[in-house]
Amino acid sequence: MKAAALNEMTFTELLEVAAARNIEFTAAPSRAELHEALVDAAPTLAERDCACAECGETFAAKRDHANFCSTKCRKTWNNRRATRGAELYDLFMALRYDRKWSSTVGMWQLICRLASEWKRMDNEAGRTYVRPEKWLEANRAWLKSINLGVVKIGRGNKA
Ligand SMILES: [Zn+2]
């Protein structure tokens, strides 16, 4: 369990987690003492139940941001993502850099329909979408820092 997750819990919830983990105090603990004891117990608190993004099965995650129950599920999910990504790459590049042709074929609408179809297939198969937080964390500042000359990335960037 990460410190951030603990920060979001009420005092009562922290007490309940401590009790469930058999963490004992000699006197009634303050919130800070409770927090510290739970962070110290992190190795045993780290396991939590997660649903696999590929098969939907519940599993005990040993680290934060674990999305898959097994290597097989992770590979299956990532292979489908790579295939979809390649399709989307071609369509998006055409949308962005071949605007005239894209508008005649209704490219944006096609991209949205494709995403809807992927979502429908995922829902049917019990798969979930994984928000690209890791990617953002790793790339957002870098992309925003690139000087593209006339074109600026992001909305409201009117420098
Ligand atoms: Zn799985």
Task: Provide the gyration radius in Å.
Answer: 23 Å
Q: Provide the low-confidence segments as ranges.
A: none
Largest sheet: 2 strands, antiparallel
The end-to-end span amounts to 42 Å
Share in helix? 55-70%
Can you count the beta strands? 2
Mean pLDDT: 84
Say what oligomer this is.
Answer: single chain
Which hetero compounds are present in the coordinates? zinc ion
- What string, H for helix and E for strand, traces the elements in order? HHHHEEHHHH
The secondary structure category is mainly alpha
Q: What is the spatial order of strands in the main beta sheet?
A: 1-2
Strand share of the residues?
5-15%
| Count of runs of 4 or more consecutive helical residues | 8
Shape assignment: elongated
Description:
With 159 residues, this protein is mainly α. The chain has helices spanning 3-7, 11-20, 31-40, 42-45, 71-97, 99-105, 107-125, 133-145; strands at residues 48-51, 58-61. The chain has a domain at 3-45. Strands 1-2 form a two-stranded antiparallel ribbon. The two termini are 42 Å apart. The model has no long low-confidence stretch (mean pLDDT 84). The structure holds zinc ion. Residues 52, 54-55, 57, 68-70, 73 line the site of zinc ion.
How do the helices and strands line up, and which of them pair or pack?
Blueprint: H1 3-7, H2 11-20, H3 31-40, H4 42-45, E1 48-51, E2 58-61, H5 71-97, H6 99-105, H7 107-125, H8 133-145
Antiparallel strand pairs: 1-2
Bound molecules: zinc ion.
